[in-house]
Recover the amino acids of this structure.
DNA sequence: TATGAATGAGGCTTCATTCAT
DNA sequence: AATGAATGAAGCCTCATTCAT
């Protein structure tokens, strides 16, 4: 908003009205809209309506719908990764660290349904935009290297079975956490809502932790 | 089907007066198109172009785009469930039956990417159409009851840990099988293609089988 | 319906299933539909749905939508004129006869809103179809000649002012009777429903009778 | 009224950036088209063709066909009522004022056939849109209150018979003026054109004035 | 005589995007 | 930096009508 400037405030170069803030505002609106309706289903007009600014600004800052979507996708990844960093698994025994990671991932996905939906939508669109984004690629590299570190530590201590693959492990954790959110609509429509109550979710999460840690545990120890 | 057809009527130009055939033709085209581009992104014109008939017939038989989509979704579920019925798990020891079910589901999803994509898309649309379809609901009831039978058998024989929940188990199997197909585009874009080679897939599937059976196995036996 | 004929009943020329009845059925449906929705707004499918027969029969008997409309318009005029014939004004004193005619016309229009609406619709369409119908023209000639007879009688007896014009008189009676039905929707939307209650209608009718007879009465008598 | 236009901007190619002008242009075209062909029969493409702008702008300003029709109907009422205001009946003796009102209404309807046709069409559509328009309702309230004033004055002076009802009187005046225009096509098709010549119209109008004033006149005075 | 299948033309509407100021 | 006006391309859908049996 910013109090409307009276005439005389018009410096030669114009005033700044926090363009970064405007962009963030637009991107937040875009994430909501795209997450709700998909890329093709999301409408620029609706995004503009969710915004403090006008439709014109969207084109001014992002070029076109696809550009906005690409930036919104990046932002969604960025927001989510931000939350993950604090985990600090290094201080824990490997199996506990793994349990905590699974548990955290499950809950984290649960708390960020718009992100999950953006990813789902991006998959529907064959990950075209994600491939084009070096930002996202670099954001995710950390997830694997962190896991590699943990696996190395677990193998060294003898707590993990030998031969674990970080990418596979990430896939497994992701599958059990992602599907839970992405497929809730169809799953609950078909099989009822029981698994999506607080109690049901806790059970699913605990069993996911159990499955993954059991899988990683060294049977010889 | 096509009972009204006389012998020798497979003319070069296709059928005439075979409404069921026309409908099937349209639905097959619709599944391809919607699976590729989503509901909003799919164009009636493109569907018609994939068809032996005209756009007009789509409206004649399905009313509107949404009606066609709903029927296509039902057909996609129907096609897939058809393949599942032949499994015949009853003859196997419970843990073997479970292993076979997981393995089959993983492969089956893999072989039906259009179905997976239709379900993803339906989730993007909050399962509106699925909720409205009693056909799909009844198709899926069987999956749970089959699992319930298996669990009962496994518990009775002592092979399964007590207290397994059929819906939960179905959720776990589905998660590991569905995510593999649904998220391949983003996952391989971010983490490479290794898991999606023949070898990678075999590994993922075997580990899924291992995880599920280990989870179900009675530790006291 | 007519009991379905068994094979063997098929005479060479086929059987008759009351084609006139079918036509009447179609025309009645057409009048309802066109009166409700206008010519362009009326749909052949809806007419067929109101019918005991199928859409195909409409084309078989009436050629096209316009042909059906033209016949329906004729039928509407015919139905209405049928009711008018019994009036027998000849036995009454001229002013009483005129009063009766006005009163009757007012009520008669009121009781035949579909006819009024068909005429309104035909006026919207610039009376194209009516001009083409010699049937309707001849049906209406009687109305004027009857009035001419009455005027002649009234002038001869000295009850009517001299110089009355039959067509003008018909116009006046029609105006006060037709508008009452044709414009009820807008009039009551704008000015309330009071004039269209039983009491309001009686008042309007009595005043119409009063206005017309006062106008026709010979002031010198 | 196009205040943003600079002096000398009446360029050959028409205006730019004059939204009110564009809207008026569209509405004028819409009234012509709808009056000619009805709501269902009127084509948006044809309306656009009568316009200085494009079809797209119709949707930009009016949303859809029905929205345009509703606004056109309002405008038609507005145009017509505008002409009525100047009448200034207050200065005349009541019977003269009434005569002038009838005469004026008759001529006014005659001069605004598009308005009459819009009202006919609205009646065909059961006055749906008119009911929804508070603008039109308020426009017409004036007609009744003006008549009430006249009646009060005429009763007070003893020129009018007691007990006249303003709405009824309005109905009578309207009937004789409206029918004349609305039913000209069918009436002249059936009974010839004599009443619709200049001479015929003058006669009809004078007789309408006579009928109404005779009806309103106090017989005791 | 009768019916369901099929059709082409045309109408309404939406949407991303650009222009003028 | 910002806004409302304007636009073209394309999509969905309806309707009268005809075909094949």
């Amino acid at each position: 908003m910013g109090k409307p400037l009276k005439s005389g405030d018009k410096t030669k170069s114009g005033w700044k009205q926090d363009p970064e803030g405007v962009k963030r505002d637009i991107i937040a609106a875009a994430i909501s809209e795209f997450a709700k309706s998909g890329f093709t289903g999301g409408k620029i007009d609706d995004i503009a309506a969710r915004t403090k600014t006008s439709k014109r600004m969207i084109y001014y800052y992002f070029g076109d719908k696809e550009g906005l979507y690409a930036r919104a996708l990046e932002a969604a990844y960025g927001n989510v990764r931000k939350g993950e960093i604090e985990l600090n698994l290094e201080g824990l025994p490997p199996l506990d660290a793994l349990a905590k990671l699974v548990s955290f991932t499950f809950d984290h996905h649960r708390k960020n349904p718009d992100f999950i939906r953006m990813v789902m939508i991006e998959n529907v669109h064959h990950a075209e935009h994600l491939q084009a984004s070096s930002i996202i690629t670099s954001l995710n590299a950390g997830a694997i290297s962190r896991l590699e570190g943990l696996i190395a530590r677990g193998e060294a201590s003898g707590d993990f079975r030998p031969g674990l693959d970080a990418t596979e492990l990430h896939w497994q954790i992701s599958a059990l956490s992602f599907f839970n959110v992405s497929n809730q609509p169809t799953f609950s429509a078909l099989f009822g809502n029981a698994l999506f109550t607080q109690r049901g979710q806790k059970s699913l999460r605990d069993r996911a932790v159990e499955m993954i840690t059991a899988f990683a545990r060294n049977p010889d120890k």
User: Anything to note?
Assistant: Residues 43-45, 55-56, 59, 64-65 of chain C lie near DNA strand F (CB under 10 Å from a C1'). Chains C and A do not touch (no CB pair under 8 Å). DSSP finds eleven helices and no strands in chain C. The longest helix of chain C spans residues 134-157.
